[in-house]
Amino acid sequence: MGISVNHISKSYKNVKALQDISFDVKPSELFGLIGPDGAGKTTLFRVLTTLLIANEGTATVAGFDVVTDYKKIRSNVGYMPGKFSLYQDLTVEENLHFFATIFGTTIEENYDLIKDIYVQIEPFKNRRAGKLSGGMKQKLALCCALIHKPKVLFLDEPTTGVDPVSRKEFWEMLKRLQQKDITILVSTPYMDEAALCDRIALIQEGQILEIDTPEAIVKHYPKQIYNVRANNMYQLIKSLNDYEYNHSVYPFGEFIHYTDKRKDFNPDQLLVFLKSNQLSNIEITETVATIEDTFMELAK
Ligand SMILES: Nc1ncnc2c1ncn2[C@@H]1O[C@H](COP(=O)(O)OP(=O)(O)OP(=O)(O)O)[C@@H](O)[C@H]1O
């Protein structure tokens, strides 16, 4: 009852939005699609929710084929699109009633599934959806996507534009839904959220770079990464890019992440080079790879 994607390709005229994508999502798995804007995440969601037909390949969702069984898929999946999908002029309660009605159900029938989430927005049930905060809109959209008790839930960048506290709460809700036997495919551009998934697919320019558990993905990182910092970060990044032995250089929070081409790299050599570039207060320390580092390496 999961998802199976086999060699799916989709183009918009000359833009190859998806190129030969294959992966499986196991029943009750929380699977993440991680990639930057334009990677093809929305296109894949639209194919899997039967809103778009792929040029090549096949896919099944909850055991149903996305082309021949599209009607069955529509009643068995919940879809929370990236852009706010609710009716802005309807109230919280009216939106929920509306979605329940079009799926031939009632709020009462499946209240158990949404209760934990709905109680948080219930105090605002008479407020128009357009007047809710980002976090509350997102909770309402999730309730609407769940109201017909779907077997598979598709969430396209559900936390984009949402504050950090609401983002954390949202992921806790997803973990609880997973325990209710709902398979979840979620996309996000946030690498910290990737670590919360059971497995992830890193996707860029319509292609999958790697699929594995977040732990395994970072373990495969091939090099030692260094956090580098100095008095002038702009000059530092320029100097590191000029250093002939650099393998990769990119800003990472308050540091620059640096890897070296050489197997026997000694940070003291880099220190000498940076000092000769008029940099001071230089710090070079070893650090461990994150999912973002892996993504940067694979996307090179
Ligand atoms: N209707 C369309 N017509 C033409 N090109 C499109 C269309 N929709 C998407 N694209 C292009 O296809 C590629 C994949 O877009 P898609 O929206 O699937 O990516 P995404 O990962 O969801 O990114 P975003 O978060 O920006 O939506 C991009 O290059 C995009 O410009």
TrEMBL record:
Keyword terms, alphabetized: ATP-binding, Nodulation, Nucleotide-binding, Transport
Instruction: Name a GO molecular-function annotation.
Output: ATP binding
The family database entries (InterPro entries) matched by this protein are listed as:
AAA+_ATPase, ABC_transporter-like_ATP-bd, ABC_transporter-like_CS, ABC_transporter_ATP-binding, P-loop_NTPase
Cite the CDD domains for this sequence.
ABC_DR_subfamily_A
* Ranges for domain ABC transporter: 3-230
Q: Which family does it belong to?
A: Belongs to the ABC transporter superfamily.
Q: What is this protein called?
A: ABC transporter ATP-binding protein
**Source species:** Bizionia saleffrena
